[in-house]
Amino acid sequence: MQIIRSVQQMQQRCLTARQAGKRIAFVPTMGWLHEGHLSLLREGRRRGDLLVLSIFVNPTQFGQNEDFDSYPRDLERDAALARDVGVDLIFAPEAADMYPRGYQTFVDVEGAMTSVLCGASRPGHFRGVTTVVTKLFTIVQPHVALFGQKDFQQLAVIRRMTADLNLPVEIVGMPIVREPDGLAMSSRNVYLTDEQRRQALVLYRALCEARRLVAGGRTDSAGIVESLRAMIEAEPETRIDYVEICHQATLERQRTVDADSVLLLAVFVGKTRLIDNGYLLPTD
Amino acid sequence: MQIIRSVQQMQQRCLTARQAGKRIAFVPTMGWLHEGHLSLLREGRRRGDLLVLSIFVNPTQFGQNEDFDSYPRDLERDAALARDVGVDLIFAPEAADMYPRGYQTFVDVEGAMTSVLCGASRPGHFRGVTTVVTKLFTIVQPHVALFGQKDFQQLAVIRRMTADLNLPVEIVGMPIVREPDGLAMSSRNVYLTDEQRRQALVLYRALCEARRLVAGGRTDSAGIVESLRAMIEAEPETRIDYVEICHQATLERQRTVDADSVLLLAVFVGKTRLIDNGYLLPTD
């Protein structure tokens, strides 16, 4: 396994691999790897000849008052985990190489898909995501790229962008990986105190409750959401960002639950913003 | 020579060619080919194994009241010219295939470079250009792409975008090709009446006058521009959009002429908007 810092060197290496007929599988991350990331890497290992992991805490997708500075970073730890799952190349660029002086170009998915949910709470976030993912795709030249479904809206936006810009990359979404008690894996879980960690479980409990209500015949989104909000607000350190039932592809709000309905949650627990989501009807 | 209409078929063809080790040279155009385009194609023929010409009158770079509908189109005529200079593939997509229903992604070079000059007169124009060029690059997968320097600002914006998005494409700018009397070649010259065609020469005469003034020791941009404006306004059917002296790389206005100074002109002659430009000091 090799760690490459230089954008130019990485691109040259990947263009050469492609030219040699290698199939490139790519997992872009911000590091501080957990089982969710590792599940993507294992699937990538199966799908590609050359498995590339990028680790880049991308400044353009963080807002002014967000956790860019405190986001956990440990390249040595991540490299050891990556080696164990068979990563070939880690791309870990510097921000000054990704966004050199005079940088001016941004990729934007316009419309509701990026202005609702996390787009409403985090203005500019998806513009940062789509810009860096476009750049990573042109540098790494992957045949296939894997993303976690925990960032459900991000995955939908990246699918849209990839199709719109004709990027020749297959986008694969992989299921949320959860702790044994149900908490969705996230690099940000490290911020939680023991008590907050306990309260954070309410996201998963809300998802289970929503599924229970739907299985029992409820289809009115407003009523379901109201119950879930009460459940989440009962935990003293929580503050709801959003609780919404949306169409899986368009992310438009749905009044009535159907097979395309996804529950999407964003909840602050203390100062830590956690997200979770899931389909409300069985998907298989 | 083959004409390909389908985006998917074109991309597949180009990915296969790259994989086979072919060097792809690409000239994106809106068709109605003239000697300017042909000079790009001849240079592309020298630089690539596979020479691709795209012909696409891109709706997203035209404003509401511009000439999208009347822009001259004749694929048969263009195909004959292309064959003569050795084009291998013409890519002539339909707008509905380039921008299918639900299309939402745009590439933007932000800041002064796209808000001055043509960016000021044609809001959204460069956003349309950078978006379609990104798409054409991901579809055609060129090693080298050739653009005319007549669209000086467009070339600067595309260079910026290509560098910022790490697109692995060498951008080549080629000199303006002029009619024997000095008029810069343009597909839009076809709109001119005989009388307007005569008056349109004032763009080239203004450029020559500016060079003469600079050769004579003048370096004050404001004074030079004032003389040129008077000269242009003396032609009855002209209406000046802009006459500016700018730095060749940043496109910022310059008070004093130096080796980086470019004169940039946009002038309506009747209803036809013509552009021209040139360095004010010898460049070799």
UniProtKB/TrEMBL annotation, chains A, B:
Binding site for ATP: 30-37, 148-151, 177, 185-188
Localization in the cell: Cytoplasm
Residues the entry annotates as binding (R)-pantoate: 61, 154
Keywords linked to the UniProt accession: ATP-binding, Cytoplasm, Ligase, Nucleotide-binding, Pantothenate biosynthesis
GO annotations of cellular component type: cytosol
Catalytic activity: (R)-pantoate + beta-alanine + ATP = (R)-pantothenate + AMP + diphosphate + H(+)
EC identifiers of the protein: 6.3.2.1
Record's keyword annotation contains Disulfide bond: no
Biological pathway: Cofactor biosynthesis; (R)-pantothenate biosynthesis; (R)-pantothenate from (R)-pantoate and beta-alanine: step 1/1
Transmembrane segments: none
Molecular-function GO terms, alphabetical: ATP binding; pantoate-beta-alanine ligase activity
Binding sites annotated in the UniProt record for beta-alanine: 61
Gene3D superfamilies for the chain: HUPs (3.40.50.620), Pantoate-beta-alanine ligase, C-terminal domain (3.30.1300.10)
Annotated function: Catalyzes the condensation of pantoate with beta-alanine in an ATP-dependent reaction via a pantoyl-adenylate intermediate.
Family affiliation: Belongs to the pantothenate synthetase family.
Oligomeric form and interacting partners: Homodimer.
Alphabetized HAMAP family for the sequence: PanC
Protein name, per record: Pantothenate synthetase
